[in-house]
């Protein structure tokens, strides 16, 4: 190692999608100083979305979802250190301490520590056969367990729960989804989309139970059943608990950075410390209606680009509308914008079946579009959001109306 | 390995050996070729992996399916030889395929 480096190092804590993208974007932006990418897992950056979708049912290997060839890191002079835990950040000295005591100095620090699965510490939660899904090792364990199971119970009717339910159903398993709320996807989707997806799963013989509060997992060594608050016990071979995520903001909090269920940043991914950024799932960023912690690839990539621009003194990238997608059976869900209560839903659907989109309006402004097997509606909606084009509910609802014409300047 | 030739938006050419079975998008992303972001990772959900197929190759590569076409209808710099590179699976038949990555 050289004794004097011209440019002080960028240290990235977390080698997931966000952390990996930060390293790529720094090099793409021409950053010439040292880049150290610290990952807790045994794998370098990989695609996380497939873990609950195609990857889970296929025979693909971890290499198939790598973000970059392993050789790229050496070629780009990015020091990728795996199975590495950071235990402390010293903001005064600008040093991070690793487990084992090694100290790494930083000029700029990027927190990309992500989230962990929210635990459900009910009686019996430590039985074998109960899984959560967050990283590749979780997915490998779950894939093996699914191969042995005939009856699968999902606890939680959010995206991960529903995606895994779709995978298990397509493998011919008997699948049950238990959601404590009286609808699916409360936090992220509209009532209209939630009702549509409830129909989709029910039509494929998923035993979908809303308002189903789990009180215990039953069994001696291995889980054999799940008991609900109404006293009913449902037998199962396998349980997947998918009840949301908790931000890995402990290091930041211990270092005295502002945290509110995630590391608080501004619209450009900066924390209050001029040498520290936070990006990806762990960051809580401001939007018009308040701070939001977004768990999406788009968010991770956008913030990675912002940080690379800051560090290299380049112009900041133009912000685009937050977006998200999910695949369940033959249903491709695409969402742009942020759903919130109090919006006017406008449904666009030809009859009762087939593609569905829901445009959510505040006055004449589109706030969010949710599209199922309707990519053109999604793309049109995303552009309407980004351009701030005023919209009319009657035109959006009219399936005979070509949405592209609404994007033309009047 | 199958050689795919990428012309990036700056006019630079990259000859990349891509594993058959991977997509043209994956070949680009894994080797950090500029201009293909592939935000969705290959789910045909974002249109950030748009390429122009060299016309001689069009018949071999084939036309987009309706889902992909709908995404392309809203992309920038679309030509009659536009495809989303995540939807093109590399096979030996595509040895030497040339694609150009348009300006975003």
Detailed description of the structure:
The complex is a heterodimer of chains A (410) and B (104). Chain A is of the alpha/beta class. Helix content of chain A is 25%, strand content 29%. Chain A has eleven helices and 26 strands. Chain A is globular, with a radius of gyration of 23 Å. The mean pLDDT of chain A is 95. With 104 residues, chain B is of the alpha+beta class. Chain B has a single domain (2-100), classed as Ubiquitin-like (UB roll). Chain B has helices spanning 24-30, 58-61, 66-72; strands at 2-7, 13-18, 50-53, 82-84, 97-100. Chain B has a five-stranded mixed beta sheet with strand order 2-1-5-3-4. Chain B is globular, with a radius of gyration of 12 Å. The mean pLDDT of chain B is 93. At the A-B interface, α1, α8, β22 and α9 of A face α3 of B.
Strand order across the largest sheet of chain B: 2-1-5-3-4
Describe the global form of chain B: globular
What percent of residues of chain A adopt helix (DSSP H or I)?
25-40%
The unreliable regions of chain B are none
* Largest sheet, spatial ordering of strands of chain A: 3-2-1-7-19
Instruction: Name the CATH superfamily assignment of the largest domain in chain A.
Output: FAD/NAD(P)-binding domain
CATH architecture of chain B: Roll
Return the average pLDDT of chain B rounded to an integer: 93
Strand and helix map with partners:
The complex is a heterodimer of chains A (410) and B (104).
Chain A: E1 10-13, H1 17-28, E2 35-38, H2 54-57, H3 70-75, E3 78-81, E4 86-90, E5 95-98, E6 103-105, E7 108-111, E8 115-117, E9 130-131, H4 136-148, E10 151-155, H5 159-170, E11 174-179, H6 191-203, E12 207-210, E13 214-219, E14 223-228, E15 233-235, E16 238-241, E17 245-247, H7 250-254, E18 263-264, E19 276-278, E20 283-287, E21 290-293, H8 297-312, E22 323-328, E23 331-337, E24 344-349, E25 356-362, E26 365-372, H9 375-387, H10 393-397, H11 403-406
Parallel strand pairs in A: 1-2, 1-7, 2-3, 7-19, 9-16, 10-11, 10-16, 11-12, 18-20
Antiparallel strand pairs in A: 4-5, 5-6, 8-17, 13-14, 14-15, 20-21, 22-23, 23-26, 24-25, 25-26
Helix pairs in contact in A: 1-8
Chain B: E1 2-7, E2 13-18, H1 24-30, E3 50-53, H2 58-61, H3 66-72, E4 82-84, E5 97-100
Parallel strand pairs in B: 1-5
Antiparallel strand pairs in B: 1-2, 3-4, 3-5
């Amino acid at each position: 190692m050289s004794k004097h480096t011209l440019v002080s190092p960028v240290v990235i804590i977390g080698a997931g999608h966000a952390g990996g993208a930060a390293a790529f974007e720094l090099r793409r932006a021409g950053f010439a100083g040292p880049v150290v990418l610290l990952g807790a897992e045994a794998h370098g950056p990989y695609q996380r979305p497939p873990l609950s979708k195609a990857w889970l049912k296929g025979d693909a290997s971890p290499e198939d979802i790598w973000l970059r060839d392993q050789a790229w890191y050496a070629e780009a002079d990015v020091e990728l250190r795996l199975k590495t835990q950071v235990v402390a950040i010293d903001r005064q000295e600008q040093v991070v301490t690793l487990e084992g005591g090694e100290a790494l100095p930083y000029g700029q620090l990027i927190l990309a520590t992500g989230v962990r699965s929210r635990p459900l510490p009910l009686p019996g939660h430590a039985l074998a056969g109960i899984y959560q899904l967050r990283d590749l090792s979780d997915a490998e364990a779950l894939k093996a367990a699914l191969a042995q199971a005939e009856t699968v119970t999902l606890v939680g009717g959010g995206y991960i729960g529903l995606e895994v339910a779709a995978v298990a159903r397509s493998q011919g398993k008997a699948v049950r989804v238990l959601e404590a709320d009286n609808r699916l996807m409360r936090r992220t989707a509209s009532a209209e989309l939630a009702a549509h997806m409830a129909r989709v799963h029910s039509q494929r013989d998923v035993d979908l139970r809303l308002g189903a509060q789990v009180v215990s997992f039953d069994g001696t060594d291995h889980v054999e059943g799940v008991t609900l608050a109404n006293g009913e016990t449902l037998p199962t071979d396998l349980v997947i608990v998918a009840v949301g995520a908790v931000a890995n903001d402990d290091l930041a909090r211990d270092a005295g950075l502002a945290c509110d269920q995630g590391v608080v940043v501004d619209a450009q991914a900066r924390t209050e410390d001029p040498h520290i950024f936070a990006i990806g799932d762990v960051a809580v960023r401001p939007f018009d209606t308040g701070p939001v912690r977004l768990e999406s690839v788009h968010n991770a990539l956008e913030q990675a680009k912002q940080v690379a621009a800051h560090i290299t003194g380049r112009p900041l990238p133009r912000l685009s509308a937050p977006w998200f997608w999910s695949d369940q059976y033959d249903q491709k869900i695409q969402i742009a914008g942020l759903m919130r209560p109090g919006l006017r839903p406008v449904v666009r659907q030809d009859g009762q079946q087939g593609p569905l989109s829901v445009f959510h309006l505040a006055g004449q402004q589109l706030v969010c579009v949710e599209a199922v097997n309707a990519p053109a509606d999604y793309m049109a909606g995303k552009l309407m959001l980004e351009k701030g084009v005023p919209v009319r509910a009657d035109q959006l609802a009219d399936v005979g109306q070509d949405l592209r014409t609404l994007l033309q300047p009047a | 390995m199958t050689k795919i030739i990428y012309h990036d938006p700056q006019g630079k050419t990259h000859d990349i050996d891509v594993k058959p079975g991977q997509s043209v998008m994956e070949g680009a992303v894994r080797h950090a070729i500029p201009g293909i972001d592939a935000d969705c990772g290959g789910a045909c959900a974002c249109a950030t992996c748009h390429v122009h197929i060299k016309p001689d190759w069009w018949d071999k590569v084939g036309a987009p399916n309706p889902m992909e076409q709908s995404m392309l209808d809203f992309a920038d710099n679309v030509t009659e030889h536009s495809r989303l590179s995540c939807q093109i699976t590399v096979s030996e038949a595509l040895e030497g395929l040339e694609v150009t990555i348009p300006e975003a």
